[in-house]
Amino acid sequence: MPGDWNLTNDLRRAKWQATGLLLLVTAVFVASHWLPATLTVRGVKAVAEAAMVGALADWFAVTALFRRIPLPWLGRHTAIIARNKDRIGENLAVFVRDKFLDTPSLLALVRQHDPAQQLAHWLAAPAHRQLLGQQLGRVLAGVLEMVQDRQVERWLTRALRSVLAQVDMGQSLATLLAALTHEGRHQVVLDDVLQRLSSLLRREPTRLFMAQTIVQWLKREHPLKEKVLPSDWLGDKGADVLAEALDSVLAEVAQDPQHQMRQAFDRSLAHFIQRLRSDAAYQARATELRDYLLHDENLAGYLHALWSRTRAKLQADLASEQSWTVRKLAGMGQWLGQSLAQDAALRASMNARLERWAQALAPDVSQFIARHIQDTVQRWDAQELSALVEQHIGKDLQFIRINGTLVGGAVGLLLFLSGLWLAH
After folding, report:
1. Where are the alpha helices (DSSP H) in 169-279?
2. Cβ count within 10 A of residue 273
3. How confident is the model at residue 147 (pLDDT cuts 50, 70, 90)?
4. Residue 34: helix, strand or coil by DSSP?
5. How far apart are CA 217 and CA 313, in angstroms?
6. pLDDT by residue (tens digit) across 53-81?
7. Cα–Cα dist 424/416, whole Å
8. Per-residue pLDDT tens for 337-376?
9. Closest among 44, 26, 22 to 35, alpha carbons compared
10. Cβ distance 247 to 199 under 8 Å?
11. How deeply is 67 buried, as exposed, middle or buried, from its count of CB atoms within 10 A (0-12, 13-18, 19+)?
């Protein structure tokens, strides 16, 4: 990797600089023994000696972090990182868990940055929405590819059948219908159906279809009369009369919340729910329906073929640069961003939920991440970890050696000058 090579090269250069300075002051110290013992020579010798001692001390301190130094008594206190790898991993895990992922820190993070507002600002940019759509499309494509695997597909089929086999179809249908009809919810659906039927009856293609149906009925049931009667006129008029009559009935039902047809609809649904719960015959039919869904090969083949075609079309769309699905996902991002930007209550609600999630999930998540950090560090090779740490921070540690040399020299000079002052 180019980055690793640069780090290694920088580390090597820093080591040579620190070692070169050590060799320089050592050479000066040795040379001072062969020169006349003048005041200047003695001063230079004192500075070089102190600088050499400081450089050696810091060399030992830095080197002892990463590798073993074979010295009596002192050797067992070297290779500190390699020998304490597991303890370092444990301490790092605890530090991250207690200082970064603790509940108060996460709650403070949510309250400080207002995530809902940040999300709204981020989604305001078209490029960000497009990126969101593309990333969600990649996730969806990955899921489709995974479930296309034959083994995964078989497992999903077995799991679905296993779950369905445990379902009491009668009670489940009764519970579902009871939830749908609670507090008249089904009447809202009925109103929508009535409105759509009324709109359908007013359309010209519907009238034409009804007229053609009446004409066909006359030809089929009364062929002789049809020859002498104005069939097309009767069809048109009959379609108009029938459509208006049906539309009138639908409008009457739609406008009257207490209409007898609504009440009959309520009674029928309530009776059906009750029989699903208590009638053995209905429960047996529900069980037969469940068994049919579980074991009918034709239905299974049809559903599998339908799913395969749908999946193939979706995969082809996701692979296209002009994917309809990706555009829709990006459009959802735009809708979400606009909703958050315009609705302060929605932002407050989202932030409040994030705080509750952080408060509820922080202990488990922080413990999981801490355990992952600790286990990962423990799996690393001790020497490789030591080399990795040295590669990333060793360059800065070499400046400690340089500073130790310079500080040692300054201390030597100070002591030499202090000795001269005391001697006089």
Report:
1. 169-181, 185-201, 204-221, 223-228, 231-255, 260-278
2. 19
3. confident
4. coil
5. 42
6. 998 888 888 888 887 877 666 667 777 78
7. 13
8. 999 999 999 999 999 999 999 888 888 989 999 999 999 8
9. 44
10. no
11. middle
**By three-state DSSP, how is residue 296 classified?**
coil
Residue 410's nearest CA partner among 48, 60, 56 is: 48
For the whole prediction, is pTM greater than 0.70?
no
Give whichever of 242-251, 294-303, 308-317 has the largest mean pLDDT: 308-317
265 CB contacts (<8 Å, ≥6 apart)? 186, 190
**For position 227, what pLDDT does the model report?**
66
> Which residue pairs from 104-111 have beta carbons closer than 8 angstroms and sit at least 24 positions apart in sequence?
106/358, 106/359, 106/362, 107/355, 107/358, 107/359, 110/351, 110/354, 110/355, 110/358, 111/351, 111/355
From the list 355, 253, 290, the residue with the least C-alpha distance to 160 is 290
* Residue pair 92/344 in contact by the 8 Å Cβ criterion: no
171: which residues sit within 8 A by CB, 6+ positions away?
Answer: 276, 277, 283
Radius of gyration of the chain (CA): 42
pLDDT at 138 over 90: yes
Measure the CA–CA gap between 253 and 261, rounded to whole angstroms: 7
> At 322, which amino acid appears?
Q
Q: Write the single-letter amino acid at 292.
A: Y
